[in-house]
Amino acid sequence: MTSQVSSPAEPADGTVVGEHVGGQRHAPSDSPGEKEVRRLDRVIIRFAGDSGDGMQLTGDRFTSETASFGNDLSTLPNFPAEIRAPAGTLPGVSSFQLHFADHDILTPGDAPNVLVAMNPAALKANIADVPRGAEIIVNTDEFTKRAMQKVGYETSPLEDGSLDGYSVHPVPLTTLTVEALKEFDLSRKDAGRSKNMFALGLLSWMYHRPTEGTEKFLATKFAKKPAIAAANIAAFRAGWNFGETTEDFAVSYEVAPASKAFPTGTYRNISGNLALSYGLVAASRQADLPLYLGSYPITPASDILHELSRHKNFGVRTFQAEDEIAGIGAALGAAFGGSLAVTTTSGPGVALKSETIGLAVSLELPLLVIDIQRGGPSTGLPTKTEQADLLQAMYGRNGEAPVPIVAPCTPADCFDAALEAARIALTYRTPVFLLSDGYLANGSEPWRIPEVDQLPDLRVQFAQGTNHTLENGEDVFWPYKRDPQTLARPWAIPGTPGLEHRIGGIEKQDGSGHISYDPANHEFMVRTRQAKIDGIEVPDLVVDDPADASGEGAKLLVLGWGSTYGPITAAVRRLRKEGGKVAQAHLRHLNPFPGNLGEVLRRYEKVVIPEMNLGQLATLIRAKYLVNAHSYNQVNGMPFKAEQLATALKEAIDG
Questions:
Q1: pLDDT of 564 strictly over 50
Q2: Which of 24-38, 226-240, 550-564 has the highest mean pLDDT?
Q3: What is the pLDDT of residues 628-649, one digit of tens each?
Q4: What pTM was computed for the model?
Q5: What ranges make up the beta strands (E) of 321-366?
Q6: DSSP β-ladder status, 93-101 and 42-50
Q7: Is pLDDT above 60 for 370?
Q8: Which of 15, 65, 233, 380 could form a disulfide with 375 if both were Cys (CB 3.0 to 4.6 A apart)?
Q9: At what angle do helices 195-206 and 212-221 cross, to 10 degrees?
């Protein structure tokens, strides 16, 4: 969905308007008979239930309507790795958290203001994150003795007083849904499957979300099953009407559009993987090259394969290979043939692709290796997030095989990161790593759709003829004769007359490309390939360090990369609001580093690097720049919380 924002841009300082414990501003109702409407500046909602309860669909639909309404938003889908985890168990709980606001926000929120719990397992798995005073909507139909015992409840939490500190709304969602669908020829079990739509309707009423988009979506999704479409729409409407008529929900809430948070433009809600897919298509069009994806399905990268397969009209070819090695082999072959070649994977797949990445380094062909990082090692946590593949991307190949590394920082930024990775690959004739992660891939936020004339020109010049003259005067084509500026070798398309040349993994003679075992030539080629990567033009690192009235800046620098951008920025805003002095910088280019990074690091007494690993960037920074960078690490499969980071940074300032 897209929405228009026409107000001027306004700096976002993280200021929260309204009186907050949820940021409430009370608005009296127009007449005594109407329900009260309260205005909020932001809300965090978490839908939770079995992995078969449709929580991801419910959250996605609520998000889409919120985006079309014009709120700023950030989401955190969280689901088990199993296709259908055991029903009613803690490992089988799936959740979707959405933070939306009338101002600029950066994270899905630390703790939900509203928890929708579809069963006892969902309640137990999430209650620790819910602050006292928050609202909890529970599906009482699922709180049977057996279901509660399955997750360790000896007594009902709805009756034993353990939820007294919360605003609990007991709602028989299943029964109400079945009653609403009694005119349809559905069994109780089939009718009960629409309870997520009933819950979505109720929450849509509570927060004044648009409904037309969801009804249209359901009609389209179940177009071949009109009875199912009608039943889901009826359940959705019944949930809305229940909120309107029941006395248990005496208040509804309004969150105004975030019109002042965005520059003028057309916006849509977008996930990281979708933005990355669009970025790859845009890169191929800007390069005037066909896009070729050689891939093997792996969580959480598979959505890129799914999405790109829909865009054959843009010259996209997708190949679902039999394994990871075949996927990258096909992609490298496509690069040799003149395509913008891409392979997508996650950490375990990178390990399998490493030999072919080394071959691409040796052949000096453009290739995008997109790693959507997840928890490891081995199979690890397929549906959880982590940043632990940085050292693998940097060094995970035999021999000296340097590869540039680019990392997006938000879901929408995945679009720009794809264009930047393509620029480097095409300009310097090298494989390039793009390191996203599960948090960015599945999370979503508003994205300003760029104008085509704002996109970079990525067109390349293929080799057209001979480029070297031998001592005997013969004009020949040398496949490893380099551009003096970029050190890139010519890109010669197979079948071009006179440009025949051999390829392979054995070391090449400089210039001619003939097989060479000469020790001096090997050292020259190794150093030249490294110099090519070191010489890649990347922008200087931008530091956000607001000086105080005396002109004195911060003594602490927080340095991040990848998806830690949102939590770090939110934490820095909190500290500054409290009067703390802290500077922030975020790396997009991890190999090579920006040219001014060393000078930036030496400016500060303390450098803290938060990472969702055990300190991989910190290790690289310490080794290269000899600074005492302090790590702050988390590897629990979840993104940092802003309050958690703010506390750690305050301790670093005070210490």
A1: yes
A2: 226-240
A3: 999 999 999 999 999 999 999 9
A4: 0.93
A5: 340-345
A6: antiparallel
A7: yes
A8: 380
A9: 160
**CA atoms within a 13 Å half-sphere pointing along the CA-CB vector of 196:** 24
- DSSP states of 165-229 as a string? TSEEEEE-HHHHHHHHTTTSS--HHHHHTTHHHHHHHHHHHHTT---HHHHHHHHHHTTT-HHHH
Q: What is the pLDDT of residues 570-586, one digit of tens each?
A: 999 999 999 999 999 99
What amino acid is encoded at 169 in this protein? H
Q: Are 574 and 647 in contact (CB under 8 A)?
A: no
**How is residue 408 written in tokens?**
């997006």
How many other β-carbons are positioned within 10 Å of the β-carbon of residue 500? 11
Residue 504, SS3? coil
203/169 Cα distance (integer angstroms):
12
Element (H, E) at 62: helix 55-69
Query: φ, ψ for residue 538 (rounded to 5)?
Result: -130, 150
Comparing CA positions, the residue from 235, 217, 115 lying closest to residue 173 is 235
Burial class (CB in 10 A: 0-12, 13-18, 19+), 548: exposed
Q: Which of 416, 393, 394, 407 is nearest to 439 (CA)?
A: 407
φ and ψ at residue 590, rounded to 5 degrees: -105, -15
Residues 207 and 255: beta-carbon distance below 8 Å: yes
Helices H, strands E: what count in the chain? 20, 26
Residue 247 scores a pLDDT above 70: yes
212-221 and 55-69 helices cross at what angle (nearest 10)? 140
Q: Exposed, middle or buried: residue 272 (CB in 10 Å: 0-12, 13-18, 19+)?
A: buried
344: its two tokens = 């997508």
CA 102 to chain centre: 22
Contacts of 159 (CB under 8 A, 6+ apart): none
And the tokens for 197?
């739509």
- Give Cβ neighbours of residue 549 (< 8 Å, ≥ 6 apart): none
Q: Are strands 367-373 and 340-345 parallel, antiparallel or unpaired?
A: parallel
DSSP 8-state assignment for residue 77: E
Instruction: Supply the DSSP symbol for 259.
Output: T
Q: Which residues contact 649 (CB under 8 A, 6 or more apart)?
A: 556, 558, 571, 572, 575, 580, 582, 608
What is the per-residue pLDDT across 317-345, written as a single tens digit (0 to 9) for each? 999 999 999 999 999 999 999 999 999 99
Which tokens go with 558?
């927080």
Supply the pLDDT for residue 624.
Answer: 98
Phi, psi of 42 (to 5 degrees): -160, 155
Query: Edge-to-edge, what's the strand order for the sheet holding 444-448?
Result: 2-5, 265-271, 444-448
> Mean of the pLDDT values across residues 377-384?
96
Question: What tokens appear for 10 in the block?
Answer: 């306004």
What is the β-pairing status of strands 316-320 and 367-373?
A: unpaired
Residue holding tokens 């177009």? 223
Q: 43 by DSSP, 3-state: which?
A: strand
DSSP type of residue 147: H
Query: Which residue type, as a one-letter code, is found at position 366?
Result: P
**With contact defined as beta carbons under 8 Å apart, do 477 and 463 qualify?**
yes
pLDDT tens-digit series, residues 250-278: 999 999 999 888 888 999 999 999 999 99
Dihedral of alpha carbons 184, 186, 192, 195, sign: negative
Q: What does the alpha-carbon distance between residue 44 and residue 182 come to, in Å, rounded to a whole number?
A: 33
